């Protein structure tokens, strides 16, 4: 009797363990089954490189959205990565363990703040600032980049701090013993040693920036056109899907799912890269 | 400049970076609370939404949020903890665990809008659950699974090996050791993950708009549609319906998140102390 129960629990746990794989498979299946039919009637290159999006006339070009996603992500990295790595170095090397134990969770709180709240702060604080001092409508690539840069900070900081702390202590001691200052040690020894971990953090942050939806909808203006300056409005792939999904039908809907496939493949590739980098680090 | 002065300069710059980050965090919290707290009255929390949010309170959204968050956790926790138990207790590191970890990491990286699309096409349309609390909660359960797995795995792994050995030495079975020794010891760590996931459910918007719907009514069953607080806040803020109500809702969101994070931090801290 005892062993029967034992066996029952073990086999159900074995089945449960595959739930993530099953969910991943079902998600992939459904997104692809909804989006793939679109490519039977339209070419992939026509969609990815098309400049015009007029669903009513059956023209589905998402090139401006892809450009928008890429530009905003690059902007977010330009803001978030230097700031994040600077914070990580300070937290890992220049603070006492006890101070770090308070500061790190505090900074990780940034990850808990809802993205709609970030978007809102972007609308009421940052956008007017950009509009008054730099011009344009304020709902721009620049505004979105700054807000997203802040949003990826906790990811970049957390992963980088862990990477820096994982560098063997003897490296540091060796360098200090040779007469190097703490900063020389950090710059020449610790950062190169933690390079792959920090890179993984940056890529995870990148994934978060590309995938962010609500904050970007609120602050990037959502115009379907190629931007000419950082003060222009753009639409990202994610906000494109979220904005039009509510009323899309037929071809229009499958075009949106096709956009989702492109986004999905993009993010999956990024994750696989980040994972392989992290794995190399563990070895 | 010699190396020592250079180091001092660098240290000041790095300190400035940390200060800036903390300042941004405090600014966001204080800004929202400063504008939102005056709106927060008992009436605001307990009245229905009137005029699409122009007037009235946010009671229905609180109920919807609670329903969705709790239901999602109820679905995701057994799956997450089960997977974690499998990874730590029932198998050795190998191809199988690598595949499961790969799946978990991929799931963690999928953007919430894709979960939203999936939930819409799978739960809402294919399974015919409609725009409902249930569809929203199931979608969120898929989303929070990686977090729960990761934190539970860490918590279970940090229970010392010897605890299990003692059970076996006394003639206990694997299941007994898991149920009576490992899980109770790992409980605070597991709870940390569950609470953090609830925070994620509270703040999620993109995945809920197309799954739980936008109804302003208080949900009466798991099959009725209901907008969560974050979704309500998004509508208020984006469509400029009512600034005071938007600030009030944001304040409730921020306070909830702060409370959940504090609880999980305290739990984690106590838990870590025990094994150090």
TrEMBL record, chain A:
Keyword terms: Cell membrane, Membrane, Phosphate transport, Transmembrane, Transmembrane helix, Transport
SUPFAM superfamilies in the record: MetI-like
InterPro entries: MetI-like (IPR000515), MetI-like_sf (IPR035906), Phosphate_PstC (IPR011864), Phosphate_Transport_Permease (IPR051124)
Gene Ontology MF term list: phosphate transmembrane transporter activity
Biological process terms in GO annotation: phosphate ion transport
Record-annotated membrane-spanning stretches: 12-32, 66-91, 111-134, 141-161, 255-278
CC terms in the record's Gene Ontology section: plasma membrane
UniProt subcellular location: Cell membrane
Membrane topology: Multi-pass membrane protein
Pfam families: BPD_transp_1 (PF00528)
Residue intervals of the ABC transmembrane type-1 domain: 66-274
Record function comment: Part of the binding-protein-dependent transport system for phosphate; probably responsible for the translocation of the substrate across the membrane.
Similarity-based family: Belongs to the binding-protein-dependent transport system permease family. CysTW subfamily.
Protein name: Phosphate transport system permease protein
From TrEMBL, chain B:
Primary location class: membrane
CC annotations in GO: plasma membrane
Cell location: Cell membrane
Name under which the protein is recorded: Phosphate transport system permease protein PstA
Organism from which the protein derives: Candidatus Gottesmanbacteria bacterium RIFCSPLOWO2_01_FULL_46_9
An annotated GO BP: phosphate ion transmembrane transport
Family: Belongs to the binding-protein-dependent transport system permease family. CysTW subfamily.
Spans traversing the lipid bilayer: 12-37, 57-87, 99-125, 246-268
InterPro entries on file: MetI-like (IPR000515), MetI-like_sf (IPR035906), Phosphate_PstA (IPR005672)
Gene Ontology MF term list: phosphate transmembrane transporter activity
ABC transmembrane type-1 domain span: 62-264
